[in-house]
Amino acid sequence: MSTSDRTINQVRAILNKLDRSIDEARERRTRGPMPEAAPAPAIAAPPPPPPAASTSKYGRATPLNRGDQPRWGM
């Protein structure tokens, strides 16, 4: 059973397309970033607002004093 010319041409076209894709990717990688793709100048963001005063009647959380107990119950 022989392979038809149409099938061979389809495989050849797929391989040529793959070669072009690899060549384009290699060119992009070796050329580096495109000059027109330069990032826009950064605009300074306004400083974040000061933290709100706590309205909790319990105050801030404090860490537990575990003393000599090893961590994770070991």
Overview of the molecule:
The protein is mostly helical. 36% of the residues lie in helices and 0% in strands. It contains 1 helix and no strands. The longest helix is centred in the N-terminal third of the chain and has 27 residues, at 5-31. The N and C termini lie far apart (72 Å). The relative contact order is 0.05. The mean pLDDT is 78.
Describe the structure using short key phrases.
74 residues; mainly alpha; 36% helix; elongated
Summarize the structure.
The protein is mainly α.
Fraction of residues in helix = 25-40%
Q: How many β-strand stretches? A: 0
Query: How can the largest sheet be summarized?
Result: none
**How many DSSP helices?**
1
- Mean pLDDT metric: 78
| SSE ordering | H
Strand content is under 5%
Shape: elongated
Write down the Rg.
32 Å
Q: In terms of per-residue confidence, which ranges show pLDDT below 50 for 5 or more consecutive residues?
A: none
Oligomeric assembly: single chain
How far the N terminus sits from the C terminus, by CA atoms, comes to: 72 Å
Structural class: mainly alpha
